[in-house]
């Protein structure tokens, strides 16, 4: 048998050569060298048959070399006789022929064996293919058939659609599938027979009220001459596939309808960056038709710059990553837009086929957001700049935010020091119900209409009175999320109101006291006058005279006090200053007070320095100050008390203190001691209490001299000490003393000058008298020239100007006044009989502030002047009453 393995073939050849060599040596010994080559013949043939040509040729060469060298031609190969060489050649030729025959036989046997294997494999493959074909036909609902040249079915497999094999075999195609019913199939069969080319076509069978879809392949069968002798065909049932495709198409249409209805811009981009789908919103937004977008490259639609901006995000999405990009793109068709783009990869079996692109135009939202941010900045600036305390409070009552005015009001360094705290912690417990009512009403979205008044104590202990109002803060859904509290500090207003109320009470008390003080002297005077009748005894006359003198002196003192009060009310008091020794004034004042002190049995002690205390002062007014202080100490000290006056110099000031052992002052009384009409001791009878103006006048007089006064007391029943400090005068006399001039100094802010200009003397003088009755300093002029002279001299705050003057028209007077140094701030009011619109325009152009038409109501004029001069800062006293 031929060997096929390489190892086996060569092993067999080597072994057989070894055996033949050994046998050859043995035969050589037996025959004496006559037939040495005979054992190699069968070996070479066997090797050629079993191992093949290559081992056989090697064995032949070996045998020729071995025999020729070892036995025929020793010792060299070419030293033999021609006969020996011929013998060796015949040996090689015979062995070679045998080798060729053996090798040919080997190849023939091996070819037969391989052919048999291939045939067996082909038969097995055909059997397997037939089995797979049958399985495929059954599993795939495929109809297979064949027909002859007469279009008669010769073979049908798996007819389907309710048919049997018997319904086909032996019958013509047109009998089973009528031409009039299935013309397309009949025509396709005819074309295949005519052209010899196969065809594929869909076929729809009507069976049992159903439409069955098939996809048919028809191929020709040729004979040896290439003539079509029949057909074979296969029809796959595609009914379910068609239904699925129809369902997919229906769903695609539904999805397209839905996507077209969505406001979001939807597109699909494939791996090549081409648009494959765009919904209606996307097409409308881009102002293009779908055809102008679909199948076009993204670069064409977006433009080069926008494409390069979105390209990295698109490529990341095509790599399988969902990417969101919010940016600004400049589109070729619609310009610059703010967009929010989401790229969603679409994959099947792990392979990304494209990207769904969701685009939202957020330009309007960005504009709204920018507007909201600007509004928020404005609100924050307003919030920060509000002079009132503005606080944002959580529903639970905790402070969320507060403006700088609120931090100052609550005495907090920063918002951090208030976080987590509630407003209730700082509110007076008495006002907690009101605060809670405001908070709850705001949370219920029904804020209280009227603000409430609360008392609050700051972090440093300062107590303030606040006017508070709470309103709700809403979120976008309209829900109340916090409370905005706006609080105004009304502490100063309340103190002012209280001060006004107390001043009003003091005024009423003063008037009652004044009436009492005026009635008291009148009664004894009337009684004494009644006794002065003719023939009255001398003693009676003397007694009556003494009563009248004493009571007249009392009334004189009352009138002096009233005059001082009048000067205070009119805001002016006259000072006649000169260089004085304060010790002399104290001595004169104590001498004048001795009768009163003796009557009350007070002990007076005066302590003065050895050297003069020179002051530059009005001696009369300063004597009035010292006298009032002594009188005040005497009145409020019980009989038998002590009063001490001390004079000294300290740090350039003369210091005078008046100390008594009287009823003293409580701490709350001290700030009110120097108030006009103030009587801090309500329990003191009217005789001792006085009119309540003395200490107020004392304080103002001291201030006019450049000094100050203060009061101290350890408490009730502990006495009081009034201390006066005044600047010491220089060593030489002041120049004003040498001239003998006196100075008019206002005690309080003076009312401003008013200049009345009118050529009607009665009208001008009557108006001036009315204004003087209201304490206005008034100057009067009857023509333009005198008006300008008076204006330059007194520099009034208001000019009441008639237009029809004899020398200059009122508009010219107004223009010239405006050109003077004092004309910038003056209020010029036209009071004229001309009231047409052109008249008003002329006066306005001339610099007139207000145009009034005669006759003007006096009450309206006074109210107007009060409004115009409410913030005026004039302090000059009147220096002229006419011009």
Question: If you had to describe this structure to a student in words, what would you say it looks like?
Answer:
By secondary structure, the chain is an alpha+beta fold. The protein contains 25 helices and 29 strands. It has a 5-stranded antiparallel beta sheet with strand order 2-1-5-4-3, with helices on both faces. Strands 7-6-10-9-8 form a 5-stranded antiparallel beta sheet, sandwiched between helices. Strands 12-11-15-14-13 form a 5-stranded antiparallel beta sheet. The model is unreliable at 683-687, 733-751 and 873-883 (pLDDT under 50).
Mean pLDDT: 80
**What structural class do you assign from the helix and strand content?**
alpha+beta
Note poorly predicted spans.
683-687, 733-751, 873-883
Shape: elongated
* DSSP strand tally: 29
**End-to-end distance, in Å?**
166 Å
Radius of gyration: 68 Å
> Roughly what fraction of the amino acids lie in strands?
15-25%
Which sheet architecture does the biggest sheet show?
Answer: 5 strands, antiparallel
> Helical element count?
25
Task: Tell me the helix content.
Answer: 40-55%
Spatial arrangement of strands, main beta sheet: 2-1-5-4-3
Quick structural overview:
The chain has 883 residues and is an alpha+beta fold. The strands form 7 sheets. It has a 5-stranded antiparallel beta sheet, with helices on both faces. A 5-stranded antiparallel beta sheet has the order 7-6-10-9-8, with helices on both faces. A hairpin with a 5-residue loop joins β11 (389-393) and β12.
């Amino acid at each position: 048998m031929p060997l096929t393995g390489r190892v086996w073939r060569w092993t067999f050849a080597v072994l057989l050569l070894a055996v033949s060599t050994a046998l050859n040596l043995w035969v050589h010994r037996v025959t004496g060298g006559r037939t040495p080559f005979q054992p190699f013949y069968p070996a070479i043939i066997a090797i050629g048959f079993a191992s093949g040509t290559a081992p056989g040729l090697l064995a032949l060469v070996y045998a020729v070399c071995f025999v020729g060298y070892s036995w025929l031609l020793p010792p060299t190969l070419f030293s033999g006789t021609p006969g020996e060489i011929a013998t060796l050649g015949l040996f090689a030729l015979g062995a070679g022929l045998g080798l060729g025959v053996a090798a040919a036989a080997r190849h023939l046997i091996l070819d037969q064996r391989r052919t048999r294997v291939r045939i067996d494999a082909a038969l097995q493959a055909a059997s397997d293919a037939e089995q797979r074909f049958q399985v495929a036909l059954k599993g795939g609902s495929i109809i297979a058939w064949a027909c002859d040249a007469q279009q008669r079915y010769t073979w049908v497999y798996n007819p389907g659609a309710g048919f049997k094999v018997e319904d086909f075999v032996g019958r013509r195609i047109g009998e089973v599938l009528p031409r009039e019913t299935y013309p397309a199939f009949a025509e396709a069969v005819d074309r295949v027979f005519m052209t010899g080319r196969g065809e594929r076509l869909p076929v729809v069978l009507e069976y049992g009220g159903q439409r069955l879809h098939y996809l048919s392949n028809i191929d020709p069968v040729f004979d040896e001459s290439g003539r079509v002798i029949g057909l074979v065909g296969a029809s796959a049932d595609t009914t379910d596939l068609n239904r699925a495709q129809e369902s997919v198409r229906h769903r695609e249409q539904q999805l397209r309808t839905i996507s077209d209805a969505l406001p979001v811009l939807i597109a699909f981009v494939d791996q090549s960056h081409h648009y494959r789908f765009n919904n209606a919103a996307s097409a409308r937004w881009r102002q293009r038709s779908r055809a102008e977008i679909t199948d076009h490259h993204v670069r064409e639609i977006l433009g080069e710059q926008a494409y390069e901006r979105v390209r990295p995000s698109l490529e990341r999405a095509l790599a399988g990553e969902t990417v969101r990009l919010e940016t600004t793109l400049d589109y070729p068709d619609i310009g610059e837009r703010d967009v929010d783009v989401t790229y969603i990869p679409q994959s099947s079996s792990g392979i990304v086929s494209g990207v769904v692109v969701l685009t939202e135009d957020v330009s309007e939202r960005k504009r709204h957001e920018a507007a909201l941010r600007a509004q928020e900045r404005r609100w924050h600036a307003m919030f920060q700049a509000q002079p009132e305390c503005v606080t944002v409070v959580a529903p639970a009552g905790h402070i969320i935010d507060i403006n700088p005015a609120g931090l100052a009001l609550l005495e907090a360094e920063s918002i951090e020091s208030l976080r987590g705290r509630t407003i209730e912690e700082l509110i007076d417990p008495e006002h907690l119900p009101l605060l809670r009512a405001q908070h709850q009403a705001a949370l219920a979205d029904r804020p209280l209409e009227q603000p409430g008044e609360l008392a609050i104590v700051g972090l440093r202990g300062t107590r303030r009175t606040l006017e508070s109002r709470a309103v709700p803060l809403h979120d976008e859904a309209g829900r109340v999320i916090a409370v905005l509290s706006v609080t105004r500090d009304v502490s100063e207003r309340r103190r002012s109101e209280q001060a006004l109320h107390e001043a009003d009470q003091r005024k009423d008390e003063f008037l009652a006291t004044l009436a009492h003080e005026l009635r008291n002297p009148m009664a004894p005077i009337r009684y004494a006058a009644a006794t002065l009748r003719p023939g009255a005894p001398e003693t009676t006359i003397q007694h009556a005279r003494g009563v009248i003198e004493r009571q007249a002196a009392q009334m004189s003192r009352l009138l002096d006090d009233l005059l001082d009060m009048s000067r205070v009310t009119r805001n002016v008091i006259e000072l006649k200053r000169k260089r004085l020794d304060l010790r002399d004034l104290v001595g004169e004042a104590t001498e004048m007070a001795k009768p009163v002190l003796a009557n009350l049995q007070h002990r007076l002690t005066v302590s003065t320095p050895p050297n003069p205390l020179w002051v530059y002062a009005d001696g009369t007014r300063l004597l009035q100050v010292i006298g009032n202080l002594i009188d005040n100490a005497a009145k409020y000290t019980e009989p038998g008390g002590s009063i001490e006056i001390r004079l000294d110099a300290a740090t350039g000031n003369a210091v005078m203190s008046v100390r008594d052992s009287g009823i003293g002052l409580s701490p709350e009384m001290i700030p009110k001691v120097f108030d006009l009409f103030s009587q801090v001791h309500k329990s003191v009878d009217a005789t001792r209490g006085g009119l309540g103006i003395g200490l107020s006048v004392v304080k103002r007089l001291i201030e006019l001299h450049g000094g100050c006064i203060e009061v101290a007391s350890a408490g009730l029943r502990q006495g009081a000490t009034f201390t006066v400090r005044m600047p010491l005068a220089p060593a030489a006399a002041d120049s004003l003393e040498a001239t003998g001039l006196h100075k008019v100094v206002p005690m309080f802010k003076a009312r401003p000058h008013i200049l009345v200009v009118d050529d009607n003397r009665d009208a001008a003088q009557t108006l001036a008298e009315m204004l003087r009755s209201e304490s206005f300093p008034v100057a009067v002029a009857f023509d333009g020239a005198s008006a300008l002279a008076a204006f330059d001299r007194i520099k009034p705050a208001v000019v009441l100007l008639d237009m029809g003057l004899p020398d200059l028209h009122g508009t010219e007077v107004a223009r010239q006044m405006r050109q003077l140094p004092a004309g910038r701030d003056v209020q010029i009011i036209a009071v004229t009989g001309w009231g047409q619109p052109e008249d008003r325009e002329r006066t306005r152009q001339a610099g007139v502030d207000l145009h009034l038409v005669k006759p003007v109501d006096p009450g309206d004029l006074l109210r107007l002047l009060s409004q115009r001069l409410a913030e005026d800062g004039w302090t000059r006293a009147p220096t002229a009453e006419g011009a």
